[in-house]
# Entry
Amino acid sequence: MSHAPAERAERLAELVAERGLDQLLVGDLVRPGDSGPGAIADSRWLTGFTGTSALAIVGAESRVLLTDFRYTDRAEREVGEPFERVTASARLLPELAARLRGRVGFDAATTSVANLKRLEQAIEEGGSDAELVAVEGLVSSLRRRKDETEQEAIAQAARLADEVYELVLDQGLIGRTEREIARTAAARIRELGAEPSFPTIVAAGENGALPHAEPGEREIRDGDLVVWDMGALLDGYCSDCTRTFAAGEPSEDVREIYQLVQRAQAAGLEAVGPGVDGRDADEVARSIIRDAGYEENFGHGLGHGVGLEIHEPPRMGPRSEDTLIEGDVVSVEPGVYLPGRFGVRIEDLVVITADGHRNLSSLPKELRVVG
# Structure
């Protein structure tokens, strides 16, 4: 078994102590026992456990993973030292409360008001001295810096998605519906041993002006631009890539907007590196689009972190408060969206390195014409 859980628990315990806490709760306190993939990201990163029912406690003397009877065997297979595995006999929260001591941190972003009250009640009923203290992002701050194993997992997911792009493009675009392309791509991802990391976006013509369009029955026609945003989920880690393709020969105004976004994306890539503010990186790309007169048509940020979740810290945008660090994995994805006409987005996934970045996306970015 990897030493990662022990090392990660130790790093987290040090951070917990620095914050003046005795313990930290890690896991989903919105729907404990029935968590989605994103909600278990912190506990999975910390312990290696992949079940949907997981709450962990970490402190100077605490290394506990709490689950329920459905996952007893899985916990035994996936979770080893330094974590004590506990199977709740009934409900998770009373079992959790019985193991809390002193000042106990919880992440307000992953805790519902209702479950916070239930946990406080269980602590009181159990006669514990535990005091719940709201903290935010202790685990996610450690998760940001991807180690070599995590970087390679994301790189493999990116390579797989790139392969799927090529496989599906070989079948052509014109005459097929957005939904057909998206479903074919998802099926190919699964055939290659992964899952889609998010619902694939295929948006043709005027639908491309919707940054998060849902594929529908619109047929791709000769002359359409097609925005195609897709990623793979492999061994728990996500990839994310967007390319915009021309179905048939594009018009001159389409080429101009595409080249504008391509220049902005290249500038954004050049800007990202360790120590760079997310706001500054965004401005480098945004200024190119602004100077061309399309600032109002670029309404989202330059990029976001990617890892166990498809959207993680850090963020790069006009209001970003993050600074890029070595080990971040971030998307770089400027776009221009012209309502009722078309949209263009180009997105690469990069690892921030000691001296710049490494691009995990291999697909060419010259405008590709597909029949």
